[in-house]
Amino acid sequence: MFDHISLRSEGSFIDAELIIRAKKLGMPVIQFGVDYFPRTRGDSTLSSLSVIKRIVVEMLTLRRELRSITPVVKGFPGS
Questions:
Q1: Alpha carbon 76 to chain centroid distance?
Q2: How far apart are CA 76 and CA 73, in angstroms?
Q3: Buried residues in 27-58 as b, exposed as e (16+ CB within 10 A)
């Protein structure tokens, strides 16, 4: 299935890009819970202004491309 997905993001937007591409291609996307453990070392950089700016730039850069995706194969297994 992932032969049809080529990710271009290099930062924190990559998770959203993967989900958008998979759903637009008609692939099944599931959600499942994971256990959360508080950080024991270091600080998250996700809330830094530079990371947020990079996410927005990647999102805007890929916006047109992501909107234009059409399914390449009808009925992926499991969809």
A1: 19
A2: 7
A3: beeeeeeeeeeeeeeeeeeeeeeeeeebbeeb
Distance CA 63, CA 17 (A): 10
| pTM, rounded to two decimals | 0.77
44-49 long-range contacts (CB < 8 A, ≥24 apart) are 46/12
Helices (H), the chain: 14-24, 49-67
Take residue 23 and report the two structure tokens written for it: 């759903």
What amino acid occupies position 42?
Answer: G
Q: What one-letter code names the amino acid at 27?
A: M
Listed in sequence order, the residues at least 6 apart from 8 whose beta carbon sits closer than 8 Å to its beta carbon are: 17, 58, 62, 65
DSSP state of 72: S
Pairwise pLDDT comparison (49 vs 46), residue with the higher score: 49
